[in-house]
Structures are given as C-alpha cells and as structure tokens.
C-alpha cells in the first residue's frame, strides 16, 4: 500500500507542480486557468503594486474567480464579495485586499 501512495503522490506532483521553480509553476497555472476563462489576478513579489493600493512592494498575491464562482456571484445579485484568506494568513487589513468589483469581468 505504501508503494501505491508514493506513486499517487508522484503523479499528483507532476500534475500540480508544473515546474521545479515555484514562481514559474505559478505563472503556468495562472495562464492555464485564464485560458479556461477563469479570472486571475497575480502579483509576484517582484512586481510593483498597483498605484494607490497601499500594498507592500514584496507582497505575493493571487486572486482566483472560477467561471462557476463568477456565475454564482452574478446569480446572487453581485452585491457580495467574499474573501478566503485562511491559508497561512495570520492577519490582514481589509482595505489592502479589497478591489472594485467589475461584474462584467
């Protein structure tokens, strides 16, 4: 059973980690999801922050809205924007992560 689990992990790693370099792997995922029609916002630590955002220069940010989420957002009246910042996040200031909602995107 241990061998099967090891092989499974290797297969998943090949499908999820698309490049040995994490930054390259993330860019590949962003491109792949955008081609599927998902909305992506990606700011690498080396990218300058959007003007007037008050974001730190060395901040990594990845926002994803799948086509399913977009449909739910539009169906539910597009008056609500939920943010899940639970992975390895200890604190954040709401004004730093909020962005204007464009229901046409």
Brief overview:
The model is unreliable at 94-101 (pLDDT under 50). 40% of the residues lie in helices and 10% in strands.
Descriptive account of the structure:
The protein is mainly α and 105 residues long. The chain folds into 2 domains: 1-35, no CATH class; 38-105, no CATH class. The chain is 40% helix and 10% strand. It is built from 4 helices and 2 strands. It has helices at 2-16, 22-35, 67-75, 94-97; strands spanning 39-43, 61-65. The protein has a two-stranded antiparallel sheet with strand order 1-2. It starts with a helix and ends in an 8-residue tail after the last helix.
Shape: extended
Return the average pLDDT rounded to an integer. Answer: 76
Q: In this structure, how is the largest beta sheet organized? A: 2 strands, antiparallel
Number of structurally distinct domains:
2
Counted beta strands: 2
Strand order, sheet with most strands: 1-2
Specify the structural class: mainly alpha
User: H/E element string?
Assistant: HHEEHH
Distance separating the two termini: 46 Å
The percent range for helix content is 40-55%
Q: What percent strand? A: 5-15%
Given as residue ranges, the uncertain stretches (5+ residues, pLDDT < 50) are: 94-101
Q: Calculate Rg over CA atoms.
A: 17 Å
* Tally of individual helices: 4
């Amino acid at each position: 059973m241990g061998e099967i689990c090891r092989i499974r992990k290797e297969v998943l790693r090949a499908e999820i980690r698309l490049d040995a370099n994490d930054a390259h792997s993330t860019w590949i995922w962003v491109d792949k999801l955008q081609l599927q029609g998902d909305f992506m916002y990606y700011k690498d630590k080396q990218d300058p922050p959007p003007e007037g955002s008050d974001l730190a220069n060395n901040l990594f940010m990845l926002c994803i809205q799948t086509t399913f989420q977009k449909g739910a957002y539009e169906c539910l009246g597009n008056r609500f924007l939920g943010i899940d910042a639970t992975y390895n996040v200890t604190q954040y200031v709401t004004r730093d992560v909020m962005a204007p909602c464009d229901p046409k995107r």
